[in-house]
């Protein structure tokens, strides 16, 4: 019994160091996954909430559906709503978030207003208080701006998720997601977890794409 435990203690630091090294090497790629040079450079709705970010990532995916058919999937996101369309086996099997990713548009989840919270985990979760971004701005079929808050101060916005929909012709949509972050007490942890965040975020964007396109089909 002692030998496996000793082997784990010896291997764990090396595994963590490998994870950090991999994240550093892949960082230029995963911080702009799917985005064009133009999408990286230009300003997007919500940039003004974190005008001088310490970190910024911009991701994008093309969807064979018009913006008005992508939009409902965005506004119904949330742990207690439609989920986040990413890897449910990880969300529930590893993180125990009690998420149930929806494969349909639910009418009662469409009425989202500025100030509403998009919860990441249930109220009974081990982390207190319950966390999740606040809806900062809504432009139907165009922009859904979320502000990540680490306190109950509704005027602060240390970080954003900026979902932007742009028509690209032939009934298709460019879904752009920009994440910006400023000073935060969780900054060190966020840097370490950045690669993991990307994997889940990429899964979310592809999940939205798949669902929106299946409705069109």
Summarize the structure in short.
This protein is α+β, with helices and mostly antiparallel strands. The protein has helices spanning 2-30, 37-41, 67-75, 88-93, 187-192, 194-216, and strands at residues 55-63, 134-139, 143-148, 159-167, 173-181.
Report what the structure shows.
The protein is an alpha+beta fold and 217 residues long. It contains six helices and five strands. The chain has helices at 2-30, 37-41, 67-75, 88-93, 187-192, 194-216; strands at 55-63, 134-139, 143-148, 159-167, 173-181. The protein has a five-stranded antiparallel sheet, covered by helices on one side. Helix 3 packs across helix 6 (194-216). The longest helix is centred in the N-terminal third of the chain and has 29 residues, at 2-30.
Features:
alpha+beta, 5 strands, single chain, five-stranded antiparallel β-sheet, 217 residues
Please report the total strand number as a whole number. 5
Please state the overall shape, judged from the principal axes of the Cα atoms.
globular
Report low-confidence residues grouped into runs of 5 or more: 4-12
Computed Rg: 18 Å
Number of helices: 6
How far apart lie the N and C ends?
55 Å
Instruction: Report the order of strands and helices.
Output: HHEHHEEEEHH
- Structural class, from helix and strand content? alpha+beta
Largest sheet: 5 strands, antiparallel
Amount of helix: 25-40%
Give the helix/strand layout.
Blueprint lengths: L1 H29 L6 H5 L13 E9 L3 H9 L12 H6 L40 E6 L3 E6 L10 E9 L5 E9 L5 H6 L1 H23 L1
Antiparallel strand pairs: 1-5, 2-3, 3-4, 4-5
Helix pairs in contact: 3-6
